[in-house]
Amino acid sequence: MKLIFEKSQPGRQATTIPASDVPAVQASKAIPAHLLRDEVELPEVAEVDIVRHYTNLSRRNFGVDLGFYPLGSCTMKYNPKVNEEAAKLPGFTQQHPYAPAEWSQGSMQMMYELRQMLSEILGMKDFTLQPAAGAHGELTGVMMIKKYFDRLGQKRTKILIPDAAHGTNPASGALCGFQTVEVRSNAEGGVDLDHLRELMTEDVAGLMLTNPNTVGLFERNLEQVMEIVKSKGGIMYCDGANANAYIGTNRPGDLGFDVIQLNLHKTFSTPHGCGGPGSGPVGVSEKLVDFLPVPRVVKKGDAYEWEYDAPDSIGRVKAFYGNFNVMIKAYTYIRSLGAAGLKRASENAVLNANYIKEKLRDHYQLAFDRICMHEVVFSGEKQVKESGVHTADIAKRLLDYGVHPPTIYFPMIVPEAIMIEPNETESKETLDDFCEIMIKIAGEAKENPEMLHKAPLTMPVKRLDGVQAARQPDVCFSGGCC
Amino acid sequence: MDYVPHTPEDQKQMMKTVGISSIEELFADIPEKYRLKKLLDLPAPLTEQEVSGLMQSLSENNRLPTAMMLGAGAYHHFIPAIVGHLIGRSEFYTAYTPYQAEISQGILQAIYEYQTMIAHLTGTKVANASMYDGASAMAEAAVLACKTLQRKKIVVSKSVHPEYRQTIQTYAWSNGYEVVETGYQQDGTLDAAALKAAVDDQTAAVLVQSPNFFGIIEDIAAIESVVHAQGSLLVAGFTDATSLGLLKPAGEQGADMVVGEGQSFGNPLNFGGPYLGIFASNEKLMRKIPGRIVGATKDEDGTRGYVLTLQAREQHIRREKATSNICSNEALCMLAAAVYLVSLGKNLKTLAELNLNKAQYLKSKLLALPGWSEVFSGPTYNEFVVRTPNAHVVNEKLQAKGILGGYDLGRDYPDLKDCLVFCATEMLSRESIGAAIASLA
Amino acid sequence: MAKPNPTDLKYTKEHEWAKDNGDGTVTMGITDHAQELLTDIVFVELPAVGKQVEQGKQLAVVESVKSVSDVYASVSGEVIEVNTDLENQPELINADAFTGGWICKIKMTNPADLNALMDAAAYDALIKE
Questions:
Q1: What pLDDT score does C1 carry?
Q2: Which residues of C touch B (CB under 8 A)?
Q3: What is this model's ipTM?
Q4: What is the pTM (predicted TM-score) of this model?
Q5: CA pair distance A208, A189, nearest whole angstrom
Q6: CATH architecture of structural domain B81-344
Q7: Helix (H) or strand (E) holding B265
Q8: What's the CA gap between A265 and C32, in Å, rounded?
Q9: Which pLDDT tens digit goes with each residue over A8-23?
Q10: Spans of chain B, pLDDT less than 70
Q11: Residue A307's domain spans which residues?
Q12: Which of A357, A400, B294, B321 is deepest in the core (most CB within 10 A)?
């Protein structure tokens, strides 16, 4: 498809700027010439060109509204439309962040209540809504851990992270100046307790644990893990990326976690918009409350105010208050479902994953054969051995059947990993159809491996040359913007 | 109200396939004592009609201004109707990050086009697919400089947005870096002599903003040699992104990285977020900068296509050695910006000129008020600082007329007590300015 | 199949090779086995000429599409020359890891460093494991 720049025609335009109702000032009179730019070179196109361009681009894309999207660890559930309508209300969208608090009581009330509800749902003492995404929340959480030990006057230089963790965990730890140390997984996909015992010394700040872990399993030895880490004064960090597995059935705070980041764009159904915006609230136990970012919404009498005065706070991690508009959607979702609905959502997310596990277990090799939580991980090794078909081939073939592939090659502890997260919003028929397709592909792998190596066959492009893209990067159109 | 489609019969059949007789059995791995025995203590569930009413009433508990004279990092601009329509296409709206290129060519091409336009507007060679916001983009630029140069000192001008400086401070503290702030001069531009004195061979990054927080346009080219003489990297931010339509791009003035808030490009105020962190750099830093980057390439038939590229920079590959931990970004806000920029085209410059006109007019009217005076003499775009008889009283008077007044500098700059940063965009009419002046006279 | 490991080179357990140039300098790179594991190399971050390096410490970085690996100095000393061809043709390592894909030359501070390295037979045994 042509680039918008290739559609540009001199003199065409899509907008007109209103004539000035105040006396015009020549830019060169107000601003020294050497600080002014030359012409703006942006495309010259008509409105209809733009609408068709982006509409056609959208047809080369795939969202949850089009079909099944079992991308593991991303919780691609259906995004209810009432949330979107709420988030479009002008009272929310048109408010300036520095409007006086008296003018923003509705927004502040929503934020205050969302914080309270998240605290109840996760069993934490309090939450900050400021981080813009999950990884940003992780960073904020680890910063609070760092501050906690600073205040205690303890020098702790390391942080422990299981080998199956998402890459953001070690990156977040390192950005807080910690040396990250990898803890091995055991044969069951959980934390290797002996290795943890050996590593957990008094210069370790804590353990960043994803629970359920990245292979979709609840950490069976969680009590011992807690005991080992806490006996040395360490902090237990819970990566909440997988929170959709347990809402309403158990709470990380009750389990003993001190910090958790959530991904509102996963568990709480806000759409991901091709990569963002997300929202990454962070919950803390009593011992970390003082370190939460500023400002915080507080309630005084019936009024909501911004509180900036918090001497032990880590400070702020972005401008303003967080991804407010995303919070509205999560708030609407929680108010719609209530306690029973949230619990039912998680229960059925887990049921759906186990259903797929049973339907596919004879066709693909299970990474771990036990009850899984909200996602199930297979290994494509069986197919590699039998016919040389790799997980990437299976994923690409799924595209031809109109299904978004699962997460592949993650976690790295499972060779040829296929990580399927079906979510509670998918019906039995959708799951049955998906399993049927997966079984059909397993058959194709045996009968016609060549075709799978070539898949996808029905997309606008075939497999793209990623090596060339990285060797000789072409990241801007060389023909200019118009 | 929930969104689980299963009928009781579906559930029964599925449980049979799984081999369980109760849902409880799925949670057998969780120690009994931690399993919740009762429902969470949350407000009762609501129907769609009820929750719509609730949200409507919450939104109405906000009071919106009739006219906006406030910017300070968040700008009130007109958004063409097509922006909302096009980013609302659910193929974009409800997609995840484009990990599978063949089924994501739409957004990948849109990112590539955005990168091209941002590189042009900032005078750089590469732009990423977005950061969280302007503040975090600037903080990450500083961290990147420290990690790349293996230095630990960051110099930032006090004329940079206070909340950006606070964010930089947080990121620097967590990484063990030192932040040195340098002052500003009588004309509101950064103090180049103080900056020169502060930059040494341990300085990784020098952070400036133009227009700066006071609305003053900085001469970035004038400090470029000071920064580079010490081998440090120059990071230039901006306030209102529409200024890029009028002002010389920082990349052309020697900035190594250009970062800033892109909200002005098609994204509503939204009470502070989600916004759009713009991040662009020179070619040398291409393999170091954070975030997603899209590259053009070909498939086996030679058809042009797009992929996420240079991924070896990113956390999912480089893990603890990555210079950033960013994963989710602000893709949909970026898409809004792309549609907005394409929609404005060359008119971006006309729009910027209109902003300049409005601000000049507002400035002249405010300065004519008795007891009001100019604070800085440097050139400005659509924001400027005035000293008022009493900042608090001024804003209260404006608010009484439904007008949001200027940003009170006294809370961040004790020497600028009673000084307000006013902003005028294309949305502020002559009539509103007249009403404001009348209320203050 | 990886190419045979030349017997006139020395090897590290991190899969670097080193060639004693006989004049107090060493030429080094990564082994053919290493490039096979990395798959298509897309970028090499070369050390700066003049950089002082320490045996076993990070020297360069090799990137493929899906991975990134540190390259460690096989001996201590000063980097006196780098293979600038790799800047635009990182694939030289894939094609010819032991010759055209060399990474840099190091002027040794301690020629005895070479004694700590493996010979081809020992390295063959290591990669068989």
A1: 64
A2: 42-43, 45, 63-68
A3: 0.98
A4: 0.97
A5: 16
A6: 3-Layer(aba) Sandwich (3.40)
A7: none
A8: 44
A9: 999 999 999 999 999 9
A10: none
A11: 82-337
A12: B294
